[in-house]
């Protein structure tokens, strides 16, 4: 008893030491420029709570950890945008986060705005990325490229195999395995699903409506927060961004693909597909590419409108800039603008200070987290929105002190202006395919596959960029094709045409199913016998012993 | 006690009446769950719930019986206390922890087992898996994940400690006189167990299992994390796709409209009635079985 008590005390002491040891770590989180915005660090804040989008949750979580040093306690539950909007409507949370506004129709049901007064405030930009888990032999593919139509057909169950001709056409440089594609979709009501389906409904309505009709939804389907799943098609549903990315990131789940914010791919260390844009380039949702794309977003600029500051993304889907990532969007906070229900001016003070923090300094961290910072016009508008929160201690912030990477002296978006153009190997039709990794797997380039026509890989002599040299017309990748034979694996060339093809196989493992009696079978039989023995022998033995004893 | 249960039942019935009056009898035949379009029913969900609970019970009861017997009859006196507190400790692990463990670790380890079962026993319909082709080396193993089987295994881990502690209490109460009598008459320890302990504890074993079943039926968050919800009767327990009433409620209550909430209440009501039925059946079995020394 005494010893037990002693160990308890020891445990308690250890726990206390740990707690003390870890608190300075929290306080010194990356961004420790103290209080340009939160000058009122001496004021005491009451805790506030919010819920909603898991798309933007990685950013919100980082920000609320950062503001702990100012004494603000912000609780946030990333339960999905639909849940967030619902909880805000019923008044159980002080603020909500959502990708889509209230009032949109989803399968014929209108998501009615709450009766309490509210306003939208943009918080961060980002790209809905297509994170996947695909290997060939033992090598992970990290440079997959997909066109919009292919993505739509994958998520409607039309393309079911990774070696489908449509995917091959997008990826001339990868040898694709004949694996089933397993689309992983959100099982809860989600703003990410709404973003993806809005894009499909706008850009590929025929494919999307046909799928919706098969799933028993009324068409035209439009955007929906609940992805319809047809049973038996091999789709997997998981709750939350954490759920879908966690599922794809399980090593054994090869062949899966999901749609999730870029930051989750970075966090789990998995690659994302480069998506084809209108300019014919395959593009990754990096911070600068997202910033460029969103120059095409149409923002509601009517301050008297209920939907002030909300986005219309058609211009992003069709943005003709070669750096555009078509699935870019903003995420919003829904904040109360009147003291109603549980919301008080004291809470408004905390919420306002928190908003000042993330609109200004917080944006600097967006890029490292896997998001993209807000442009100057939205930061300005957002700062105006903060003033509508009751109880806020209004501050006039000099936005130049925010060091937001998009700001410039002449009002243009610096991040977008300086965004690098995509390399030639990312152009559709280029004979070479970039081999660098993407997303969380940026450090792992994919070696050109053995069967790939990696023509220009030798010296790039014939790729399209060289056409102007010496004024000699060089037709496309025609010459580069000759170099292909050197790229891995033996090659067979046809003598009359000169066309070469590399011959190589993808190593696979197969279990011998109908191989008759193998050693495994023997072990299994032995194990079965052992189990039966342990179960049956003791009672049988006992009975036998009893019988012999009573007999004697 | 009874009054509280009655109140819960009445509350659920009132809240559910809205949805039930719209759905009518189709509530018991429709498999889909889309309350806002008027197409929703309980049948697929109830079947899914029962399947998960059955898998859990089939795994947990033998395991718990063995544990309880070992602790009460075989374990040396020195380590008995430790074992008992270990089992109780296991009962105290929150279900979210079990869920995360199941999702991130167990799932990967169980897939080969599920694969083996489906390949060798696939001719039995419940072990069949659509989309699994053993001759295709690149066939995705994802068809074996997020299944009724894996959810059932995790729930089994959660109900085992409860069943074990009830059985242990019961076995401990076996009259010392009869036990020592059997041993004095020359019985081995095992035959003493089969002739004294087990008959004496039968009612307790059934009661414990039923209590475990009740908890397995209602287990929410671990199931919610693991399964990939499907809304059809899906009897292939190894195949991706499962559903249970409580995980459906956890999944949908946040985003439900007022009518959707009423439909969820109706689902909750049917789970409530089913659990009641199970518990009544348990007490009926316990009352009818011999011994009566414990219940």
Summarize the structure.
Chain A has a domain at 118-426: Periplasmic binding protein-like II (D-Maltodextrin-Binding Protein, domain 2, 3-Layer(aba) Sandwich), CATH 3.40.190. Helix content of chain A is 32%, strand content 14%. Chain A has helices at 2-27, 57-66, 81-90, 148-154, 165-170, 191-203, 205-214, 240-248, 262-268, 287-293, 314-317, 345-360, 366-369, 376-386, 414-417, 519-551, and strands at residues 48-52, 74-77, 95-98, 105-106, 109-110, 118-133, 135-136, 139-140, 145-146, 182-186, 236-238, 256-261, 274-276, 282-283, 298-299, 311-312, 328-336, 491-493, 500-502.
How does this model look, in words?
- Chain A: Keywords: Membrane, Phosphate transport, Signal, Transmembrane, Transmembrane helix, Transport.
- Chain A: One of its GO terms (molecular function) is phosphate ion binding.
- Chain A: This is Phosphate ABC transporter phosphate-binding protein.
- By secondary structure, chain A is an alpha/beta fold.
- Chain A has a domain of 309 residues: 3-Layer(aba) Sandwich (D-Maltodextrin-Binding Protein, domain 2), CATH 3.40.190.
- Helix content of chain A is 32%, strand content 14%.
- In chain A, α6 packs across α7 and α12 runs antiparallel to α14.
- Chain A is globular and about 95 Å long.
- The N terminus of chain A is likely disordered.
- Chain B is an all-alpha fold and 295 residues long.
- Helix content of chain B is 69%, strand content 1%.
- Chain B has a two-stranded antiparallel sheet with strand order 1-2.
- In chain B, β1 and β2 form a beta hairpin.
- In chain B, α1 packs across α10 and α5 crosses α7.
- The longest helix of chain B has 32 residues.
- Chain B is globular and about 70 Å long.
- The two termini of chain B are 18 Å apart.
- Chains A and B meet through α3, β11, α8 and α16 of A and α4 and α7 of B.
């Amino acid at each position: 008893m005494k010893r037990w008590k002693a160990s308890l005390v020891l445990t308690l002491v250890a726990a206390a030491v740990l707690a003390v040891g870890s608190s300075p770590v929290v306080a010194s989180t990356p961004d420790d420029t103290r209080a340009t915005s939160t000058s009122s660090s001496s004021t005491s804040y009451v805790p506030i709570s919010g819920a909603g989008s898991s798309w933007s949750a990685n950013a919100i979580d980082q920000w609320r950890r950062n503001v702990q040093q100012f004494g603000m306690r912000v609780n946030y539950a990333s339960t999905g945008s639909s849940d967030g909007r619902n909880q805000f409507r019923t008044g159980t949370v002080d603020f909500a986060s959502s990708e889509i506004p209230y009032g949109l129709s989803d399968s014929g049901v209108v998501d009615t705005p709450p009766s309490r007064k509210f306003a939208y405030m943009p918080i961060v930009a980002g790209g809905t990325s297509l994170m996947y888990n695909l290997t060939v032999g033992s090598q992970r593919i990290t440079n997959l490229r997909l066109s919009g139509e292919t993505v739509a057909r994958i998520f409607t169950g039309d393309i079911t195999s990774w070696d489908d001709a449509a995917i091959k056409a997008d990826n001339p440089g990868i040898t694709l395995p004949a694996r089933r594609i397993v689309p992983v979709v959100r099982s809860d009501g989600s703003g990410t699903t709404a973003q993806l389906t809005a894009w499909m409904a706008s850009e590929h309505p025929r494919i999307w409506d046909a799928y919706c009709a098969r799933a028993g939804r009324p068409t035209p389907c439009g955007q929906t927060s609940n992805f319809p799943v047809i049973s038996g098609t091999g789709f997997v549903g998981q709750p939350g961004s954490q759920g879908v990315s966690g599922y794809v990131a399980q090593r054994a789940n090869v062949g899966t693909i999901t749609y999730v914010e870029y930051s989750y791919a970075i966090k789990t260390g998995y690659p994302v597909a480069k998506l084809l844009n209108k300019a014919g380039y395959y593009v990754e949702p990096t911070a600068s590419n997202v910033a460029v794309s969103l120059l095409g977003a149409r923002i509601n600029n009517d301050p008297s409108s209920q939907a002030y500051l909300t986005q219309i993304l058609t211009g992003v889907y069709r943005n003709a800039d070669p750096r555009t990532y078509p699935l870019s969007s903003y995420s919003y906070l829904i904040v109360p603008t009147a003291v109603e229900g549980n919301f008080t001016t004291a809470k408004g003070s905390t919420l306002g200070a928190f908003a000042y923090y993330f609109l200004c300094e917080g944006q600097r961290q967006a890029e490292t987290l896997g998001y993209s910072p807000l442009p100057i016009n939205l930061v300005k508008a957002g700062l105006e929105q903060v003033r509508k929160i009751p109880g806020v201690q209004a501050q006039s912030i000099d936005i130049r002190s925010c060091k937001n990477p998009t700001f410039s002296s002449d009002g243009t978006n610096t991040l977008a202006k300086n965004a690098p153009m995509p390399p030639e190997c990312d152009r559709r039709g280029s004979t070479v395919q970039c081999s660098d990794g993407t997303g969380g797997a940026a450090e792992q380039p994919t070696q050109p596959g053995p069967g790939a026509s990696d023509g220009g890989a030798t010296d790039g002599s014939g790729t399209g960029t060289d056409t102007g040299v010496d004024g000699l017309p060089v037709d496309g990748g025609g010459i580069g094709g000759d170099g292909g034979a050197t790229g891995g694996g033996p090659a067979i060339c046809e003598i009359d045409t000169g066309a070469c093809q590399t011959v190589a196989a993808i190593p696979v493992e197969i279990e011998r199913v109908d191989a008759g009696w193998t050693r495994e079978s023997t072990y299994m039989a032995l194990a079965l016998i052992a189990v039966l023995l342990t179960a049956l022998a003791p009672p049988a033995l006992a009975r036998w012993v009893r019988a012999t004893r009573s007999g004697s | 006690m009874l009054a509280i249960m009655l109140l819960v039942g009445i509350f659920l019935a009132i809240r559910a009446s809205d949805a039930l009056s719209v759905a009518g009898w189709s509530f018991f035949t429709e498999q889909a769950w889309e309350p806002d379009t008027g197409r929703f029913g309980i049948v697929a969900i109830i079947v899914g719930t029962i399947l998960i609970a059955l898998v859990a019970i089939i795994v947990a009861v033998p395991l718990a019986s063995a544990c309880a017997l070992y602790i009460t009859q075989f374990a040396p006196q020195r380590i008995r206390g430790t074992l008992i507190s270990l089992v109780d400790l296991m009962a105290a692990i929150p279900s979210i922890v079990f869920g995360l463990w199941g999702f991130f670790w167990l799932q990967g380890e169980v897939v080969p087992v599920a694969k083996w079962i489906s390949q060798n026993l696939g001719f039995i319909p419940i072990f069949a898996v659509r989309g699994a082709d053993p001759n295709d080396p690149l066939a995705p193993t994802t068809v074996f994940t997020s299944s009724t089987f894996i959810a059932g295994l995790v729930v089994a881990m959660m109900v085992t400690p409860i069943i074990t502690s009830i059985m242990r209490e019961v076995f401990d109460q076996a009259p010392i006189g009869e036990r020592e009598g059997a041993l004095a008459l020359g019985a081995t320890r095992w035959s003493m167990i089969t002739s004294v302990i087990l008959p004496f504890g039968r009612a307790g074993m059934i009661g414990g299992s039923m209590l475990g079943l009740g908890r397995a039926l209602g287990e929410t968050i671990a199931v919610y994390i693991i399964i990939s919800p499907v809304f059809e009767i899906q009897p292939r327990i190894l195949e991706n796709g499962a559903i249970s009433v409580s995980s459906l409620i956890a999944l949908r209550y946040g985003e439900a409209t007022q009518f959707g909430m009423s439909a969820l209440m109706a689902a909750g009501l049917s789970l409530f009635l089913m659990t009641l039925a199970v518990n009544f059946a348990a007490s009926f079995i316990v009352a009818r079985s011999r011994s009566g020394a414990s219940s």
